[in-house]
Specification:
Elements (H helix, E strand, L loop, with lengths): L2 H54 L13 H19 L4 H16 L5 H19 L5 H12 L3 H14 L1 H18 L17 E6 L11 H16 L5 E4 L3 E2 L2 E2 H11 L7 E4 L5 H15 L3 E7 L3 H14 L5 E7 L8 H15 L11
Amino acid sequence: MCPESFDTYRWRALFAKQIIVLALLMLDCAHGFAQSTLAVDARAQERVTALIQEALAPSRTSRTPKSTNAAWENSLRVEANFREAARLMPERLDLRFVIATALVGQAAQTNSPLLDLKIKQALDVYQEIWGMDTNGFHGGILYAAYARAIGDTNSSKEMIEHLRAVDPKRAQDYAERFERVDGFLEITPNEKLSQLGLQGTNHAMVVLGAALETNGVIKPKLVGRLRQALKFARAYPEAPIILTGGNQKAGVTEAYAMKLWLRRHGIAEKRIHLEDLARDTVSNALYCVTILEKLKVTDVTVVTSLTHMRRGLADLAEASLQRGLKLHFANLAIATEEPALDPKAERLGTYRDMMRISGLWAYPGISR
């Protein structure tokens, strides 16, 4: 081999070696960067998981005075934790849904003008979700519902129109739900049995429960409902009676306590149907409809307090339609000494229930 050829060979070999070393260094750096990125993501994920678990865990015993609203404190804790989680993982829309849910929960515990403020904050979050996923449906329809709940019908209708491009059938379905809810919110509750105007005998009565005393004894508010129910039961002796309420005190549910009261006042056992699983008005409706479907009735008279009637009727009607039942609803209310409801609070609570019954639960993707 001539000297020139040998030198050329050595130079090429040295150059190739340097290229290999450089490539290995680059691979090592890339691996290190990837490991570092994964470590950061892992730490963020670990922190987010901890924040979610802490936020959704049962409320701890508070050391603050008894007058403190535990539900309010809990919703503030949920909001704070999920805001921090969303900051760490901004791409996760489910975290933002929970922030909005917490704000709606806070609004439901207060009256105007704080109610308006909290709902507007929730609407801002739903708008963020919509902006990040304009092909999504949930964020947009929740925005439309709660905008309408506080009287912003223009913003609600505008969002519905956007959603028609995403899912026209569901958008129309919710538009009709909104109209139905508004119809029930305009009802004037009836306090007189003579004004029911029921036709035929194919009807049932649903009595909505209320909290018992700590020893399981019925409170005056619920006694008032039962007295109205007794008038109905005597006027319509063939009508089945559904008693609903699963909250327990001293091992006794609302439904069972009501049954004992009616039995003591001469109502036959065979007429009474217990729904003793429900813990709120939404589950009252969902569980009652299963019983109503089995009874094959066409008319339902709802008995509850004056301030609870419109919401109770709307919930039962929505749950019935979910099961394909077309029932006619009447109402028999009992006036109580409870303070009058803030109209916006009643409206918000009813819209919130309707959205839950429709299948949009409190914490999408995380918890029902």
